[in-house]
Design goal:
This protein is α/β, with parallel strands linked by helices and 424 residues long. Helices cover 17% and strands 28% of the residues.
């Protein structure tokens, strides 16, 4: 039997419904980030930088882009004969065929994969956070405390604490209480959804709770371990960590990359972020263009103005166009004379000439106020926007749209156009 000290299980099946039209056709961990990367690149890079060379990636919702991106793990040096990266979709078993119904259920369905490596420890990760963490330091903390379970935690503002699993710990880090998304939190130490389990403890908890419907770490496994007297510790992390689960936090995290001294630095030599890189032609910047404080991807052609924006690869920005405080993913085409302000435009979108995006005053969303609650224009991938239309703030567009979809040539603030077959 192969023996690995610690293996990682990376949960990447999330639909990411709070990202609206951005995740209509792609899993949240596969959404582009920072002009070059995808969200899943961050936990995968953390693994290889931390010496964790065996990673199971659990996929489910819209997995194609994710599977293609990961491949056999070459960009992260995870193409190993023993270990490496393995994509683990739900599969048909002799007795049943089951989708993953919760985070812990997904891990339970892959017990055989984990047993193959007979690990001492199992690291559970989420595929949709932006951060850099040395998991080896966390493992050393786990060992030093002879812990059964270690939860990575970080302080959050008290008013936000009810969104997280909340930990109450002693001075030495021993966990006294754990509350999953409490209405009245008794601490501001939030679980980051990163756990190290001693293998025997994890296996016993998963098997015992296997009949539990929608079995989840925060709701079931962690409380079960706590109630059964397991040694549980909180590992406090104080670096940059961002859950990019909402349009607002996704936009903010991208914008933070372009600060003069970025809070999250993509350029550190000693902790590189790896990604699948295609062979792309160089950028072209014409004599009519102006660029200020922006990230520009390879193969991009700029003839207009770009200010405080994150631009992916193979993007075209036409003559006289102005792009401000926006995120343009790979393959976007912006027509001549457009003004694009505070927009998130997904891959392979075509914007016609003279389009004005992000105009007027903010209004609440008529589509889904829980998702669209920011003064952003969000455009789903492969959408088409006709020439000379005006698009208000807090709007969403998905699909191939025509002039008649814009009464009076306008999409008012708070409104949306989602064509049949496109999910919101």
């Amino acid at each position: 039997m192969i023996k690995k000290e610690m293996i990682a299980m990376l949960l990447a099946g999330g639909q990411g419904s709070r990202l609206g039209v951005l995740t209509a056709k792609v899993a949240k961990p596969a959404v582009a980030f920072g002009g070059k990367y995808r969200i899943i690149d961050f936990p995968l890079s953390n693994c290889i930088n931390s010496g964790v060379d065996t990673v199971g990636v659990l996929t489910q919702y819209q997995p194609l882009r994710l599977n293609t991106h990961i491949g056999i793990g070459i960009p992260w040096d995870l193409d190993r004969n023993i270990g490496g990266v393995t994509v683990l979709p739900p599969y048909e078993q002799s007795t049943s065929s089951e989708w993953y119904t919760g985070t812990a259920n997904a891990i339970y369905q892959n017990l055989n994969y984990m047993e193959m490596y007979n690990p001492d420890y199992v690291l559970i990760l989420s595929g949709d956070h932006i951060y850099k963490m040395d998991y080896e330091v966390m493992l050393n903390f786990h060992k030093a405390n002879n812990a059964d379970v270690t939860i990575a935690t970080m302080p959050v503002p008290m008013e936000e604490a009810s969104r997280f699993g909340i930990v109450v710990a002693n001075e030495d880090g021993a966990i006294r209480e754990f509350e999953e998304k409490p209405e009245k939190p008794s601490s501001n130490l939030a679980s980051m959804g990163i756990y190290i389990f001693s293998w025997k403890v994890l296996k016993e908890a998963l098997v015992t709770l296997s009949s539990q419907s929608n079995c989840d770490f925060g709701k079931h496994i962690i409380p079960y371990c706590h109630e059964n007297g397991r040694r549980m510790f909180a590992y406090e992390y104080n670096g940059y960590w961002k859950d990019v689960g909402t349009l607002g936090s996704y936009w903010e995290a991208n914008m933070e990359l372009i600060d003069i001294i970025p809070e999250f630095n993509l350029y550190e030599e000693y902790w590189k972020i790896y990604t699948k890189s295609d062979t792309i032609t160089p950028q072209y910047v014409s004599d009519t263009s102006f660029i200020e404080k922006s990230i520009i991807g390879e193969g991009t052609r700029i003839e207009g103005e770009v200010r405080s924006s994150v631009i992916g690869s193979n993007v075209t920005i036409g003559k006289g166009a102005v792009v401000k405080e926006s995120i343009l993913m790979d393959g976007v085409t912006i027509g001549e004379g457009c003004v694009i302000e505070k927009a998130i435009i997904a891959e392979d979108v075509t914007v016609g000439k003279g389009v004005n995006m992000g105009v007027g005053e903010y209004k609440p969303s008529t589509l889904d106020p829980r998702v669209y609650a920011f003064d952003l224009v969000t455009v789903g991938e492969k959408s088409v926007i006709p020439d000379h239309v005006q698009i208000g703030k807090n709007t969403a567009i998905s699909g191939v749209t025509a002039p008649e979809d814009y009464p009076g040539g306008k999409l008012e603030s708070g409104d949306a156009i989602v064509k049949d077959g496109d999910r919101t």
